[in-house]
Amino acid sequence: MSAYFPTMGLEIHAELLTRSKVFCTCSAEFGGTPNSRCCPVCSGLPGTLPVLNQKAVEYIIKAGYVMNCDISRFTKWDRKNYFYPDLPKAYQISQMPRPVCLSGTVNINVNGEDKVIRINRIHLEEDAGKLVHDDVNRISLADYNRCGVPLIEIVTEPDFHSADEVIAFIEKIKLLLQYAGICDCKMEQGSIRCDVNISIAPKGSDELGTRTELKNLNSLKAIARAIEVEIERQEELLESGERVIQQTRRFNEQLGETTAMRSKEDAHDYRYFPDPDIPPIIFTEEELDEIKRSIPELPEQRVARYVDEYGIKKADADIIVGDKRVCDFFDAAIAQYDNPKAIANYIIGELMRRINLGEADMDALKFGGAEFAQLVEFMQTDKISQANAKTVLREMIDKGGSPKDIADRDDLWIKEDNDLLAKVVDEIIANNPKPVEQYKSGDQKVFGFFMGQANKALKGAASPKAIQEYIRKKLSE
Ligand SMILES: [Zn+2]
Known about the structure:
It is a single chain. With 477 residues, the protein is α+β, with helices and mostly antiparallel strands. The chain has three domains: 4-286, no CATH class; 297-410, no CATH class; 418-475, Arc Repressor Mutant, subunit A, CATH 1.10.10.410. It is built from 15 helices and 16 strands. The strands form four sheets. It has a nine-stranded mixed beta sheet. A three-stranded antiparallel beta sheet has the order 5-4-15, with no helix packed on it. The protein has a two-stranded antiparallel sheet with strand order 3-16. Helix 2 packs antiparallel against helix 3 (220-239). The longest helix has 20 residues, at 220-239. The protein starts with a strand and ends with a helix. Zinc ion is lined by residues 21, 24, 26, 38-39, 41-42, 148. The site of zinc ion has 8 residues, from loops.
């Protein structure tokens, strides 16, 4: 057991899903030929004037509401001065004393325990460009496409004491932003990025230790590992009588170690001052109410509704709502066939199983919720057997198409062929005198044996109900 406990706070940067950048009309989309989505404003030419994107302001207010923040009625923008090759203006337009959102809360659940994480602030700023380092030619290239993409920075209080809490929080933030429709949260594309402030202190101590900041963490796995490694490093320092230096550190995933990037700056190093080009904003209650009303149903309410109205188990509702793509798919399916329980079961039992096996990809499904719902309905109404439904689903995953067309083409319908049913079951009963004897002497369990045999032989030609009834009839003769 360690003699120390860790304390962490997060700074999460999320790119907003606006079509254009925050201070100009260039496209804010990810990627593109380097420097093809730039203009004099976002490439920082002298004499240009920024114009604030109204949608970006609306989105940060939504972010504030979904994280239960207070929205400032008066907000303004500041220049954060620093020189870096990916920031051609040599200052970033950000917000210092008057951010749009202040003091919020987000509920997380970690290994079954509920916890509230406090949000210190959320502010709106512009993203910087990207440097591409060419090690072969020993040069660095600047791509300014990302310059000026609207960014919100979510700053938490130091409320985390384990990597599990950090991961649960980031996953919750991703869900909230996705459901609110303001960020796609693609970590691999950098549309959500996370810095972790981390310190350790002796157990029982009221004071926090000196913190370091871990930067450039681009996956949940990297974040969890980096936290673990940095806690170990700080413990070793303190154990050997040394001290932790306040600095920004980089995590090297290959080597599994953190290394110093630079000593940590304080706010005054950036010489913040009010940006003279962007006027402050005063929001009216009406404007804020309208934005609040436009926020769609959020994950927690959805789970509650699925449980209360549809009778879906809480654990199942959590799984469906836990991935917005799956949730949208589910909604499309129940719009086609009003049987939420059966659809939820088949999504979790079959579709997600295949996704987890790598057979299907939620981002590239060749069919929609409506087609999936038809398949579930065919099963529920005894038109197709469970085994054949699996065959149809496999075909839909591989090639797409409607379940009806596939079942027609491959002759997969239940035919209710009573003659065939009688012939097959009579044969099974004649060939298995021992289980028949057992059943007649009161052993109900062998009934499953007859069902299994009949299902196998009939290959979906009769419904389970018809098979069951006929076997029961024969066995009681
Ligand atoms: Zn531009």
